[in-house]
Amino acid sequence: MKKSLILLAIAALASVEASACTVWEGYHIPTNIELLEQADLVVLGSVDPGPEKCVGSGRREICYLTVELSPQQYLKGDGPQLLNLEGSFSDRRGGD
Is residue 38 part of a domain? Predict the structure, then answer.
């Protein structure tokens, strides 16, 4: 279930602009259908971003964020009335 919550967190934060990354040769990018098949939990809900805490500066800055997901409907699996998802991100584009 933790893997599914991580996928859900990635989807919730997908609106945040991401930097490009390199994948290894032959890597298969999973389709949405494949991700749904692998997930233990699929939820429709509203996301309320919590406060952001950033440490460091420039290229070494890392930000920690907690989002609150209020499920409106569980499409796959069962869960609580409120989900808190924690994660971190960094902006490697600019800075020092």
Answer: yes
